[in-house]
Amino acid sequence: MTSWPHGRCRPARSGERCTSVADHYFSAEPGSADVRRTVEARIWGREYTFTTATGVFSRDRLDIGTAVLLREVDPPTGSGTFLDLGTGYGPIACAIAVEAPEAQVWAVDVNTRALELTAENAKAAGVADRVYPVLPDGVPADVRFDEIWSNPAIHIGKAELHKMLLLWLARLAPGGVARFVVGKNLGGDSLQRWLTEQGYPCDRTGSAKGFRVLRATNAGPSPS
């Protein structure tokens, strides 16, 4: 991770340390002490300082998967309603809101500590009025998304992952796009096939550092 194109995204530190499954970053209430720190990242040509904490995914840096996603996909612009699914401490949600000044961004996570950090980081980035950190049931039922962005929690298991993705993909607006980053060795290619089989045509738009960047679309009618 030593050479990243100018104006895209690079992680702030070499090497990677992600929160392990034992740290329960996808638990509602992390059992670890809330020890905070800051990490720096460059996303789409802008410098960010994020507050992170124990018990939250990739607390020590911008993780490689998220960095690959943000490097391989151009930033959105203009208006729209976006979902950052599994937001963690909010780097994707904050960066989208900064780049798309008319966008509304829902930042969803099951981890309440992560949501607190996302709110803090959105405030620091000046986008707290357009980033909504909420638990999954906190998104109003009538909200539809123009785009979904996610580095999904693969370790919750295939059955739960598929259930989660179908729940949120059903809320894509007609013509909406979902962007995922998944490790090749964690089922990135099989997930691409599965998404297409479920009625969301999916292409691979990037591949780097052992990760697949996937783009799935909703070509069907609006859900009732």
Structure explained in plain terms:
This protein has 224 residues and is α/β, with parallel strands linked by helices. The protein has one domain (36-218): Vaccinia Virus protein VP39 (Rossmann fold), CATH 3.40.50. 24% of the residues lie in helices and 30% in strands. The protein has helices at residues 64-72, 91-99, 112-125, 158-169, 188-197; strands at residues 9-10, 36-43, 46-53, 79-85, 102-108, 131-134, 145-150, 172-183, 202-208, 211-217. It has a 7-stranded mixed sheet, with helices on both faces. A hairpin with a 2-residue loop joins strand 9 (202-208) and strand 10 (211-217). Helix 2 packs parallel to helix 3. One of its GO terms (molecular function) is S-adenosylmethionine-dependent methyltransferase activity. Keywords: Methyltransferase, Transferase. InterPro entries: RsmC/RlmG, SAM-dependent_MTases_sf, Small_mtfrase_dom. Residues 47-214 form the Methyltransferase small domain.
Keywords:
single chain; 224 residues; alpha/beta; Rossmann fold; seven-stranded mixed beta sheet; three-stranded antiparallel beta sheet; 10 strands; globular; disordered N terminus
The CATH superfamily is known as Vaccinia Virus protein VP39
CATH structural class: Alpha Beta
Largest β-sheet summary: 7 strands, mixed
Strand order in the sheet with the most strands: 6-5-4-7-8-10-9
Low-confidence stretches: 1-27
Q: What is the average per-residue confidence, as pLDDT, rounded to a whole number?
A: 84
Helical element count? 5
Instruction: Determine the strand fraction and express it as a percent band.
Output: 25-35%
Number of strands: 10
Q: Which term fits the overall shape?
A: globular
By helix and strand content, what is the structural category?
A: alpha/beta
Rounded to the nearest angstrom, the distance between the terminal CA atoms is 44 Å
Please tell me how large the radius of gyration is: 16 Å
Number of domains: 1
SSE arrangement, N to C: EEEHEHEHEEHEHEE
CATH architecture title = 3-Layer(aba) Sandwich
Q: Percent helix among the residues?
A: 10-25%
CATH topology: Rossmann fold
